[in-house]
Write a structure and sequence with these properties.
By secondary structure, the chain is mainly alpha-helical. It contains 15 helices and no strands.
């Protein structure tokens, strides 16, 4: 890997660490400081993922038509200011649920643009043969962030307070900006709209082109159906996870951080091994195996109990993290390899729209079910649903493919 990728990788790693601080701290602020209910806490996940449903498709057209690095810089700067507003409000004694909802909503929208641009930017920085390795490294970084973020947050909460700890996330976006500014790889000319076509019609046609490419491709169609189903149930789990751990399992913040850290270690192992697993098992076969084999352990999440029984939750969460990193590395690399370069932004956006669109609905599902039937029964439904999503891939051409 050469310098441009190393810069992107280092900046993204730091940014991911900061984001994982927010993943832990924001729900804890809602639960412990603002006394939010299960449903109110789940709304944080809902608002944070709502943009995936609303703007992913148009974001893909924008990404294909603008300078990707410049767009990523704008998104990072804006996210830095938004996250930084919460510690400022904490100093003034005015943090509210309303502010948290607004911040996670706008940060979610900016993340949609940034992530689509980043996935479309990576093939410009590395050779196609190195995509699996590059995506594996980024996946491993996400796991390192899941390990380091909660650990840092847990260590600093007692010193800085919950809200002020979010300074770490704001600072991480600033460091990501620096890394992007140091990348000098030229980008190809952006695709203009068809001549003689009204701008709105050209935009809609370009948006539809990416969606058609995804839905007409038999393997991509199966991947997005599986991922959308899995994301729905995993987001439902995440939306009630903090309430379940704190109020049902009576886990302390340090124990929660340790559980998340163990999941991160498993994800890190998956990211580091993803390239080798793909080569040994097959770049197509590993896509469905990575979901079905570890997924059987998801049932340990609702089986967990207080005290030593927290280990069951940690194992189930580790299995989910390992599965997610290996699966995403494999399916993202597959998508990047088969897609024409001029369609990368719209293809990634179309996939994001289909697979991330159910996430806000999953958050509402988790919050509603957790309120109506209880947290543990809700986790049973979600754990089994997330595992069963992998079965959809066995109905596709992937079942008979080894590589692509």
């Amino acid at each position: 890997m050469h310098r441009p990728f190393l810069l992107l990788w280092s900046g993204q790693t730091l940014s991911m660490v900061g984001s994982e601080v927010s993943v832990l701290i924001l729900p804890l602020i809602a639960v412990k400081v603002l006394a939010a209910s299960t449903f109110q806490t789940a709304l944080l996940t809902f608002f944070g993922s709502l943009a995936f449903l609303l703007i992913s498709l148009p974001a893909g057209v924008v990404v294909d038509r603008v300078h990707k690095r410049r767009l990523m810089l704008v998104c990072d700067l804006a996210r830095m200011l938004l996250i930084g507003s919460i510690p400022v409000a904490a100093v003034l004694g005015s943090v509210t649920l309303g502010q948290l909802y607004v911040v996670v909503s706008v940060v979610g929208a900016l993340t949609v643009f940034f992530d689509i641009a980043a996935q479309s930017y990576l093939p410009l920085l590395v050779d196609r043969s190195l995509l699996a390795d590059g995506n594996g490294k980024l996946g491993a970084s996400a796991s390192v962030a899941q390990l380091a973020g909660p650990s840092l947050a847990g260590a600093l909460v007692s010193v800085m307070g919950l809200a002020r700890t979010l300074v770490l996330d704001a600072a991480s976006y600033a460091l990501s900006v620096v890394s992007l500014l140091l990348i000098r790889t030229p980008e190809p000319a952006r695709a203009p709209g068809p001549p003689g076509t009204p701008r709105g019609a050209a935009f809609r046609a370009a948006m539809a082109e990416g969606l058609r490419f995804v839905l007409r491709h038999p393997v991509l169609r199966a991947i997005v159906a599986c991922t959308a189903t899995s994301n729905f149930f995993i987001t439902a789990i995440e939306s009630i996870q903090m309430v379940y751990l704190t109020r049902t399992l009576h886990a302390r913040p340090a124990q929660i951080g340790l559980i998340l850290a163990l999941g991160a270690v498993a994800g890190l192992a998956g990211g580091l091994c993803a390239g080798r697993l793909s080569a040994r098992v097959g770049s197509a076969r590993i896509i469905w195996l990575s979901l079905l084999v570890p997924g059987a352990l998801y049932v340990l999440l609702p089986l967990a109990r207080s005290g030593a029984g927290l280990a069951l939750y940690a194992i189930g969460w580790a299995a989910l993290s390992l599965s997610a990193v290996v699966y995403n590395t494999a399916q993202i690399s597959y998508r990047q390899a088969i897609c024409p370069p001029e369609l990368l932004g719209r293809m990634n956006a179309s996939v994001r729209w289909v697979v991330w669109g159910p996430m806000p609905l999953g958050a509402l599902f988790g919050g509603s079910m957790g309120t109506w039937i209880g947290l543990r029964p809700s986790l049973w439904i979600c754990a089994l649903g997330a595992w069963a999503a992998g079965l959809l891939l066995l109905l596709s051409p992937l079942r008979g493919m080894r590589g692509h």
